[in-house]
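Dear Dr. H.,

I hope your travels went smoothly. While you were away I took the liberty of generating a structure for the chain from your last submission, since the lab meeting agenda had it listed for discussion. I wanted you to have the full record in hand beforehand rather than looking at slides cold. The sequence, exactly as received, is reproduced here:
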Amino acid sequence: MEAITRHSISVATDQAVRLWALSSAEYPKHHEPLINSLVANTLDITSIFALNCRRALEILPPKEKFPLDTPRWIWTPSTTEARVTDLWDATNRIIHAQRLLIGLEKTPDHLSVIDGESVFMPYIQAETDRRELAFIDPFALAHAFLYGALPRLLKTAENNRPAKN
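The corresponding predicted structure, in token form, is as follows:
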């Protein structure tokens, strides 16, 4: 396995863990500096993750799919945009995005541990020059990589190690 691929697996793993953490938390709705930092960091982390994840996925068979089927939050979009359901499709949309938006929704009162109104991040929206705006669950994105793609990538890396003499 090439050094760039090993590096991309490592970077994608680090960014997936960060994305997992950011998408698992709730945030005080009216703390503007915190919300602005959340949005900026999520955009950076998502972009870095997608590029490195996609590079790493290139070594796996193209028909191998990793579904985005493990949400952290239960939510229903209020619009009709599609939900992205596959890791490859999600990373492709993020890499080629002409619009990349971070979605914040009100935390249900019975789940909130923050005084006052709070929000959580159940989705990212991506639109490319060829694909319409669609929802991507950031937690499911991280989960699909960490529990689906990463074990396969590590196994492939192990199988491609040169034999010891």
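Two observations you may find useful: The chain has one domain: 3-159. Residues 32-57 form the longest helix (26 residues).

With kind regards,
E. W.
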